[in-house]
Amino acid sequence: MRIPRFRRLWLFLLILGPGLIAAIAGNDAGGTATYSIVGANYGYHMLWMLLLVGISLIVIQEMCARMGVVTGKGLSDLIREEFGVRWTFFAMAILLVANIAVTISEFAGIAASLEIFGITRYLSVPVMVMLIWFLMTRGSYKGVERIFIAMCFIYVAYIFSGVMARPDWGLALRSTFTPSFSFDINFILIAIAMVGTTVTPWMQFYLQSSVVEKGIKIKQYRYQRWDVILGSIIAVIIAFFIVVACAAVLFPRGIVIHEAKEAAMALRPFAGNYAYLLFALGLFASSTLGASILPLSSSYAICEAFGWENGISKKFDEAPIFFTLYTLLIVIGGGVVLFPNTHLISIMLFSQTANGILFPFILIFMLLLVNKKRLMGEYVNSKFNNFIAGSTAIVLILLTIFLIIATITGKVT
Amino acid sequence: MVLFSEMFVSRLIGIPVVDKLQEHVGEVRDIILSLGEVFPKVTGLLLRWPEGAVVLMSEIELVGQQFVVTKAVKERIVYTKLREGEVRLVKDLMDKQIVDTEGARVIRVNDLKLAKVGQDVRLIAADVGFKGLLRRLGWLEMISFVLGIFKKQVPDTLIGWDHVEQLKTDKAKGIITVPTKHLSEMHPSDIASVISQVHSEEKTAIFTSLSEKTAAEALHELEPKIQALLLMTIDTKRALSILDKMPVDEVADVLGDLPSENAENFLRLMKPKKAGEVRKLLKHPDETAGGLMTTEFIVLPHDLTTQQAIEKMRAEAVEAETIYYIYFTDDGGKLIGVISLRDLIVAPPDTKIDKVMSKNLITVEPETDQKTVAAIISKYNLLAVPVVDKAGKIMGIITVDDVIDFILPPISRRIRHMLG
Q1: Would you call B201 and A72 a contact, using CB atoms and an 8 Å cutoff?
Q2: CA-to-CA distance for B145 and B132, rounded, in angstroms?
Q3: Which residues of A touch B137 (CB under 8 A)?
Q4: What is the pTM of this model?
Q5: What is the longest distance spanned by two Cα atoms in chain B?
Q6: In sequence order, which residues have a C-beta less than 8 Å from that of residue A198 and are 6 or more positions away?
Q7: Per-residue pLDDT reduced to its tens digit, B165-221
Q8: C-beta of residue A132 within 8 angstroms of C-beta of residue A305
Q9: Burial of A119 (0-12, 13-18, 19+ CB in 10 A)
Q10: Is-contact A149 A21, C-beta < 8 A?
Q11: Which chain B positions have a beta carbon within 8 Å of A314's beta carbon?
């Protein structure tokens, strides 16, 4: 059947969303911090890795959306129905730990962004914890979500800044296509963080349930597919320019990022003295978006897997575990940041490393599911998809082993 | 055949099967069920080894906590094969979602309970609580012990199988064919709430299993997005008969939320008269009086006696959404009066309608905002308000249930939302 062009566009806009939101929310506090550190510490040297991560991001997100469309079930539902209680418990424990780490990093992002304006974290974090809690439970979330998503586009400023900083394009391009590796703790930590911040466990659960929620049929799948691919490409392009901007501005001057302010300097070529303001706004928006989505999506995933009542519009007594989990996640996320002398940038970076270490486990579950003919029918993974996703899992596991070896042998530079 | 009182499926899986001489035969992999009765009967055990072999219950002497004992010696056990369409407890029921028809909610099966009933072993309950989860994880003894120190117990959450509705989907390849008797006995609003909680495929499955009348009532209670999904996935012929059973204003509501192509498609196939009325209603924006009103009401000429009016009303009542108000027009079709059912019945039979009807009419225009309509209905304590055009001709009526959400204070709306 031929569908008129305007109708095709309409369908696309209708479906557009989950993939884009997931990808944009991926460039959150942890993402910004990690990419900035990558650029500041290693210049263009790690760009080749970003290219590969970008490819695996597209493949994995597409796989995830396809699973949602074909089975009509969320990822945690599928894990429970196919692998039983014990494996579900394992997967949910992994997800919970990874998501607590990311939630902490989001609140670190909120704290860091507002500290640029001179607001102490001891004020900003408790206020934001309460604000987010009320916003989500009182149901006025959807509208606010759009505002934050729109604000996340502030990161497009990095593209301009990256160009205006007059980077050494020849070197940047060469680095994008020539791998270089260094066997030391910091390099490996940051490498895992870079993969872990781009492709995260929570994103898979969030994306798949959003796709299911939208009730997209297999006939409309190609539109959903483009949403996911487009979202991933945008996310990677922004990440690329964050690295390039930092590599051009911070790396030559030998500036190591200790505080958000230093990361903000990468926006100078574009925004001049407004760099701090722009950076702070972007960081604040993306961190708040993450801090709103993450605890909620984790609670949904876990409650669905175990069959506990869930739903943000329910009352506490109707869904006690759901609300306890949700509240606990937000409170832990905000609470850790308030410990005296915690270093915000390190929190953001290490939480992404934790994500990268944990992600292979979730990815293996996904690969097992997406290759089940009984579930996916003709839509099982292609060899290419399996190769990319499988390699991602193997590389992350290898990097984790390297990290352990490097830690034991104490090779720090 | 002996079964030690009651037993959970999770405990049975993986235990060894031995013959009557204690000779090892194999291991239990799954339990086979024959459906059709309220408490389905266990017909056999599927073994992990020898692979794919099924031992019928008639061959089994005892199902114990530690092992299963067969009646015959190892060499003489008669094995059968798994038959097409047989239901397996672990593969088909465990960890899946079921509908608790008593609580009108969807839950996940953590474990299944078997019991000896007469000579048979039957599936009697689904464990949907913590206890089942802990048992599956193998932590039940430990947690019970710890809680025991504090004189507490792990709460038991069993749902009797007589209150369980298994969802049948295409993905499960039609293995499960429990009659959907329980589900259809539920209130349409409760069914709607169950439908909104399950996956999209199961939404269609449940909806298809309903009688047309129940489906029609449930459909209107659902969110527009789900309505569209259901109408577009079920058989068009069936969708049409369901739409036919719904009042025109509800049909207009539902079709109004479909993509225009699909709505047009349904309209073309519907009975011309009803389609015409729906089309008229669809012209009005959703949030105005025109969008809310129904055209199924009783309107009669004003020169009747009350007796005649009652007879005419009786003839038209089936089609009308409400009969509590009867409207009267003059010869030009202009609305001139209304009478409540009560006033009509208590008036002497030969009284002229003109004498008893109320001429002091409260009306709204098709463009009136829905909130204003609600305010008017609430202010004058009406059950319905007529919608009239500029010339005073009656176009339709809006009943109180169409605007109840605007009349209720926000807090009770929230409760209603939670209930539904």
Answers
A1: yes
A2: 16
A3: 85-86, 89
A4: 0.74
A5: 97
A6: A26, A31, A50, A53, A54, A57, A235, A236, A239
A7: 665 544 443 333 333 456 667 778 877 877 777 777 777 777 877 888 888 888 888
A8: no
A9: middle
A10: yes
A11: 418
